[in-house]
Design a protein that fits this description.
141 residues; mainly alpha; 1 helix; CF(0); cell membrane
Amino acid sequence: MISLNATLIVQVALFLGLLFVLNRLMIQPIHRLILEREQHLRDLRNQLQSFHEQLAQTSRDIQRRLKRAEQEAREVQAGMRRDANRQADEMMAAVQEQVVAFRQKVRQDVLQELEKARKQLRKQAESLSLEITTKVLGRRV
């Protein structure tokens, strides 16, 4: 059996004193370090989460800007095509007008040459007819 005497009380008092000293010198500082470390890790996780969110937001912004830039490029390209088609149509119209004008000029030149040739043929026909008449009749008419 266990006897309860003064040594037990001294041992309990020493144990409680040791527990108090260990608590003050070791357990509380270690516990404080553990809590600080956990808080630091929580802060780092929160920072990491924040960085991930910023990265995701930046990625979305970049994708949005890229899509906007692609859309603007398509619009500029379509505008350039419209301008090029308009210029090509204008050039075709100008060339067609030149062709029509050239045809009219050539037709006019041909008609003038034809008229000159007719006049010249009439003169030659008249002179030939006079010559033939003179030869047939034997006298000048």
